[in-house]
C-alpha cells in the first residue's frame, strides 16, 4: 500500500501541497501565493482560476521535491479558507465573478435587510451563526443580485456555488467532465444554510435568502472517498478522501478529538476551536456553534469557535501599507527594541470586530499615542493585539463551557514568534504549547484522508503522532495582567460606531 498522503491547503494568501508520511511528518511542500484583490474599501477578492492553476502547480512541486509519483500517494485531503465563496458555470467551468473572501464586508446591507425580520440571530438556533458578512451565504446573494444575468442562470440550474474546497474538488475530479460537486459538514456549517442537527441544507432558509438549492454542493462527511483525480492530473486515479475547513483541520491535526480539548490557530486571522463532542452548545458569549468533524458514518462532533478577523494580516498591513517592516519576521526584532507598548494599543478592526463583539460598525484604531511612542512600540502593540483578542475569546469559551482551559495548544505561522507566544501565555495566565509539526491545518486534512483509506487505523494512531515542541509558562503578575486587559478593553470601545450613513 502507498504510505504517503498529500494535503491540499487552499488558504487565504496561498495554496500549498504538503506530503506527509505515516508518522505525520512533512516530507515535502509546494507553495504559491495568489493575488489579493481590493476593488474598494472593505472588498476582498481572489481569482478562482489563479487558485486552481496554483493548486495544480504546487502538487507538482511537492511530488518533485519528494521524488514521488501518484503511485506513492494513498489519498488526497483538502483544507481551505472556509467562508470564501465561488460561483461558477457548471457547463463552462468559468467563474461568474471573483471569489468573495471571508474578510469582505460588502454584504452588510444584505445582512441588515435579512436582520430586519428577527434580528442578527434570526437563524442562529438552527445554523449556529449570527447574520454577518463573514459567512458565505450573503456573498452568494450579492453575486446573484449584482452580476448581470447571474440570477437567471442560477434559476435555470446553470450555476454552482462552493467554498474553495468544493472548487478544488470539482476541478480535480474532472470539472465539466463529471466533476464531483460536494463539500463536507465543516464547510457547510459556515454558509448560514445548514441545519446543525440534520446536517442538511434548510429549504426555508434558502428561500429566505433567495438562493436556489440547485447551486449548492452535496454535504458529505469529513472523511470518505468523494471521487478520484481525473486522468490529466499528476495524481490521476488517486482518491480524494478528506475535506475539512481550515480551522477544523488544524484542530484535527492537533489531535484535539475529545470534549474540552482546544487549539488556537495564528494565521491571517485567529481562530480558537473548543471541542464539545457530539453536543450542540449554543453560545451565550459571542461564539459560533460549528461542526468540528464527522468521520464517515460516525456521529458528528461539534465545537464552539471564537473567530478573530485580523491578526497576521495586521503584520502584513504594517509591511505592505506602511512599510514599517520589509518582511513579516522582522516584526519580532523591531518589537523587542522596546520593553513594553509605551501605552499604545492597536485594535485592528479592519473588517469590523468578530468574536466576541460582532460589531460590523467598528473600524481599526491605534490609541494611547504620545510623543514617546516609536516604531518599536507600534510593532509591539500590533503583536499584543493578537494576544489580547485571543484572551477575550478564551474568556468567552470558559464562560460557555464552564470548564476553564488549563493550557492552550497553538499552531499557524505566527507561533514562530517567541515574543508573541510569551506574551500570549502572560496575558492568558496559562501555558501555551507548540507542537513539533506546526502545519496542523494540512496535517488534519491528511489525517482525514488517510483514515478513510486505511493509512491510519483510528484516532489513537493520530494521538500517538502528536509531540510537544515548546511550552511557554506565564510570567506576568496578576495585577499587571489585569491593568493591561483593562486598557485593552478601553481601546476596543474606541472602535465602536464608526461606520454610519456617512462612513462606509
From TrEMBL:
Enzyme class: transferase
Chain residues that bind ATP: 12-14, 268, 312, 316, 413
GO molecular function: ATP binding; glycerol kinase activity
Family annotation (CDD domains): ASKHA_NBD_FGGY_GK (cd07769)
Organism listed in the record: Arenivirga flava
Domain Carbohydrate kinase FGGY N-terminal: 4-253
Primary role: Key enzyme in the regulation of glycerol uptake and metabolism. Catalyzes the phosphorylation of glycerol to yield sn-glycerol 3-phosphate.
A Pfam family the protein falls into: FGGY_C
Any one of the GO CC terms: cytosol
Protein name, per record: Glycerol kinase
Family: Belongs to the FGGY kinase family.
Lineage of source species: Bacteria, Bacillati, Actinomycetota, Actinomycetes, Micrococcales
Binding-site list for sn-glycerol 3-phosphate: 12, 82-83, 134, 246
Catalysed conversion reaction: glycerol + ATP = sn-glycerol 3-phosphate + ADP + H(+)
Domain of life: Bacteria
UniProt KW keywords: ATP-binding, Glycerol metabolism, Kinase, Nucleotide-binding, Transferase
Gene name per UniProt: glpK
